[in-house]
Amino acid sequence: MNSVPKPALGSETSWREDFAVGDKDAVVIVDHGSRRQESNLMLNDFVEMFRAKTSYSIVEAAHMELAEPTIKDAFGKCVQQGVSRVIVSPYFLSPGRHWKQDIPALAAEASKEHSNIPYIVTAPLGLHELMVDIMNDRIKYCLRHVAGDVDECTVCAGTGKCRLYS
Question: What residue ranges are annotated as transmembrane (predicted)?
Answer without folding.
Answer: none
